[in-house]
Design a protein that fits this description.
- With 231 residues, the protein is mostly helical.
- It has seven helices and three strands; from the N terminus they run ααβαββαααα.
- The chain has a three-stranded antiparallel sheet.
- The protein is globular and about 55 Å long.
Length: 231
């Protein structure tokens, strides 16, 4: 089996092809689709390796800063990506920049971090093309984008689980999720949930359309300093 670094390197190469402006559309689409599937397969392989290991690793706790504006909508995107990779996101409330805590296994945390950076940049790029740029529209757009991306990632993961062994794979992933949930209870014994609302349905639907065509991966050039792209 390929090492983690080798798989991540292959993902980056595929997406570099998909993102390059000189790549023919059909080839770019094929490369992006292959990368998306490989990302999920990588996560599954890591879970199966963990299940067979003599010494089990434990979930880790990491924090990242979510920059204003539209902090709640950005947290929704992070949580949508995390939820498809057995990672939990915990954060406070408010519209100012705040810390988001992620709880999960190292390999899953690495994927979530990469995907969040890339998809936030993609959302910002797509949003700049929209003629309606009011605050309510922007916020609803990001919420719709997050929902669509989350739905797509879950579907891809379910298909990959079915193709990779079904029950045994599902059990390994369930054990991984259970370990993360236990770690969350230990670190955050008192959690509450908040309902997210929006006031612009047009923005929500535009965001979902953008999320439906988003590249669910990241190229190497997207990895640094891009999380504050939405102004």
């Amino acid at each position: 089996m390929q090492t983690s670094d080798a798989v991540l390197a292959r993902i980056r190469k595929l997406l570099a092809v998909a993102e390059h402006p000189a790549t023919p559309p059909a080839e770019a689409e094929s490369a992006a689709a292959t990368a998306e599937r490989l990302i999920i397969k990588y996560a599954i392989d890591e879970a199966l390796l963990e299940a067979r290991a003599d010494v089990r690793s434990k979930p880790e706790v990491r924090t990242i800063t979510i920059e204003a504006p539209y902090v709640t909508a950005k947290v929704m995107l992070l949580a949508a990506i995390a939820g498809a990779h057995s990672v939990r996101v915990i954060t406070g409330r408010g519209d100012e920049a705040r810390m988001a805590t992620m709880v999960g296994f190292d390999s899953d945390l690495r994927l979530v971090d990469l995907l969040f950076t890339s998809l936030l940049l993609q959302a910002a790029t797509s949003l700049r093309r929209e003629p309606n740029r009011g605050k309510a529209f922007r916020r609803a757009f990001l919420i719709g984008f997050a929902r669509e991306v989350g739905d797509r990632l879950r579907r891809i993961r379910e298909e990959a689980v079915a193709e990779s062994g079904g029950t045994s794979t599902a059990l390994a992933l369930r054990d991984r999720r259970d370990a993360v949930e236990q770690a969350v209870r230990e670190h955050f014994p008192r959690l509450s949930t908040a309902r997210v609302t929006y006031s612009d349905r047009g923005g929500l639907m535009a965001g979902r359309r953008s999320g439906a065509s988003a590249n669910l991966g990241t190229g190497e050039r997207n990895l640094a300093g891009r999380r504050a792209a939405i102004e």
